[in-house]
Specification:
alpha/beta
């Protein structure tokens, strides 16, 4: 069943979100501080039974100079700088196996699949935090400086820096993408790195926090509402902190060609929060709406549409 507004109302919906006056200053100083650390990019070949692809275990420096991990998959034998895809995974997940997500490299891209710190993979988050509801969404939410997504979004920007530093990659042709949390991270990255080449945000999480906290009845957003149920006087402070991390704010600053998607039966990411970001997105954009789908949105159909769309912008090897 529908989990949010009817489709006609979604096209009319506009978020009440307003960026704080020093939003850009906060992020500029955060990224400058991160880039003071050496990128420390390191590639280790991975033995994999793949005839057409090469795989590397990648380490690079993210927020605070902390080591971040990723997989790099390359078309075997490519002889020219490649367009690149930087991918981020869903909430609580990981970069997965070296043998998963092979379609991007098979389509001619260098594919950097980032492991989000402190979640289900191999990249720790060495920074502690104050009280939080179980999960990741409220970790460090006492201030904008300590909030976990300050570190995660900074890591994502440094992942783009890492992709551009690879000798196999054309730095002018780097796109970002992800599903759910990964879509929210990709959207933030597109807002923070204005010259990324393209964006795909599939059912993006981390947008329109205030509305999501009121109508989102499943995890992860319920972590926020339950935290506020316990900390009854904290709502004003919490939403002030979250105003620096809201995907609606990043969307209003991003200009790369963008592919969004949403499922109208999504109980995890309310569709209106996706529309809230989409409506203010500054660059060329399209939104695929899947009336009878949930959090998977268009699934493989989204991937096919993005592969075809990215081809016209990024001109993969062999196209």
């Amino acid at each position: 069943m529908l989990t949010d507004l009817p489709l006609d109302a979604l096209w009319e919906y506009r978020s009440d979100y307003m960026a704080p006056p020093d939003f850009d200053e906060f992020w500029a100083s955060t990224l400058t501080e991160a880039r003071d650390h050496d990128l420390a990019l390191r590639l280790t070949p991975v033995e994999a039974p793949l005839r057409t692809l090469e795989v590397f275990d990648v380490t690079f420096s993210g927020f605070g100079g902390h080591p971040q991990r990723a997989w790099l998959r390359l078309p075997r034998g490519a002889e020219e700088p490649l367009p690149a895809i930087v991918q981020f995974h869903g909430y609580g997940g990981s970069r997965g196996s070296a043998l998963q997500e092979l379609h991007w490299a098979s389509a001619g891209y260098a594919h950097l699949q980032v492991d989000v710190r402190g979640q289900g993979g191999v990249t720790p988050d060495p920074v502690g935090s104050g009280p939080a509801y179980p999960g990741h969404l409220t970790r460090g939410i006492d201030s904008r400086e300590t909030y976990v997504y300050r570190r995660i979004f900074t890591d994502a920007v440094r992942a783009v820096d890492a992709a551009r530093a690879l000798e196999q990659v054309d730095p002018a042709r780097v796109a970002v993408l992800g599903n759910s949390q990964g879509g929210g991270i990709a959207l933030a990255t597109a807002g923070l790195v204005p010259d990324v080449a393209a964006l795909h945000a599939q059912a993006p999480f981390l947008c329109d926090f205030r509305r999501a906290s009121l109508i989102g009845g499943e995890r992860p957003y319920v972590e926020l509402s339950r935290y506020l149920a316990e900390h009854r006087d904290a709502a004003s402070r919490v939403f002030e902190v979250l105003s620096y991390f809201d995907g609606v704010g990043f969307a209003s600053r991003a200009t790369a060609p963008a592919w969004f998607s949403a499922g109208l039966m999504d109980g995890i990411v309310p569709p209106s929060t996706v529309f809230g970001a989409y409506h203010v997105y500054k660059g060329p954009k399209r939104l695929a709406v899947w009336e009878y789908n949930g959090h998977e949105a268009g699934g493989a159909d989204d991937v096919q549409a993005v592969l075809e769309g990215f081809r016209t912008i990024l001109h993969p090897h062999g196209s």
